[in-house]
Design a protein that fits this description.
globular, 8 strands, 36% helix, two-stranded antiparallel sheet, single chain, 194 residues, 7 helices, alpha+beta
C-alpha cells in the first residue's frame, strides 16, 4: 500500500515562507516553528486567512503544515551563499521559544541576520525529521532525534555528511536554526503532488 500524495499548494508554500523559526531547547535541541507566532504575528488564524483568503479551515490548514514542511525540506532547492533576513524573533517574547542568537545575559537578539548558508547546511535539510507537537500546536524538528538516528546528533550529522564526528558538528547543528529560516524563505519549489 502506498501513501497518497501530499498536495503542496501555493498557499502552503506562502505559509512556509512566513514561518518563524526558533530553537526548541527540549531534548538535544532543534529548530522549531515559534508556537506563539508561527507565521509572524500572534494571530495565527488571521495570518493563515490572509494567505488563503478563507476564514474557514484555518486549523486544518495549520495542521497540514507538518506535511508541507516535510515535503519542502525534501524537495526545495537553494544555492549556498550569504543571505540576510530580518530576525522575526527580535520582536517576540523571548520566553516563548529559544533563539541561538539571543544573548543570555542581556536577552537581546539582532534585528538583522547575515548568515553564510553552506553545502553542509543544505545537505542536512532533507534529513531533518518533522513531527507535530501537540503540546506546542506547531510542527517541530524532532528535538530528540533531529536527523532520525538514535546514536546522537553529531553521529547523525557525521553520517549524513560523510565526515568524522567532532565538536564542530554541535555548532553546525545550532546553525540549523538560521539555516532553516533562510531555507524556508528562499528555497525554490513549485506546487504539486509529492
Amino acid at each position: 500500500m502506498t501513501d497518497s500524495p501530499f498536495d503542496l499548494t501555493l498557499e502552503r508554500i506562502a505559509l512556509i515562507r512566513r514561518m518563524v523559526i526558533a530553537w526548541n531547547e527540549a531534548g538535544v535541541g532543534a529548530p522549531m516553528i515559534h508556537p506563539a507566532a508561527p507565521y509572524g504575528s500572534t494571530d495565527r488564524d488571521e495570518d493563515i486567512s490572509n494567505v488563503t483568503g478563507d476564514d474557514e479551515g484555518t486549523d486544518e490548514e495549520h495542521r497540514a503544515l507538518e506535511g508541507a514542511l516535510a515535503v519542502f525540506l525534501k524537495h526545495a532547492v537553494l544555492k549556498p551563499g550569504r543571505y540576510q533576513y530580518h530576525n522575526p524573533l527580535a520582536k517576540l517574547d523571548p520566553a516563548g521559544a529559544g533563539d541561538v542568537f539571543r544573548d543570555r545575559a542581556t536577552g537581546e537578539t539582532p534585528v538583522h541576520i547575515t548568515f553564510a548558508l553552506t553545502d553542509e547546511h543544505l545537505a542536512l535539510m532533507p534529513a531533518l525529521v518533522v513531527r507535530w507537537s501537540d503540546a506546542l500546536d506547531v510542527p517541530v524538528i524532532d528535538p530528540d532525534r533531529p536527523y532520525g538516528n538514535d546514536d546522537g546528533v553529531t553521529a547523525g550529522i557525521a553520517r549524513r555528511l560523510g565526515v568524522p564526528a567532532d565538536d564542530r558538528l554541535t555548532g553546525l547543528h545550532h546553525e540549523m536554526q538560521p539555516a532553516l529560516q533562510i531555507f524556508t524563505r528562499y528555497g525554490d519549489i513549485a506546487p504539486g503532488d509529492f
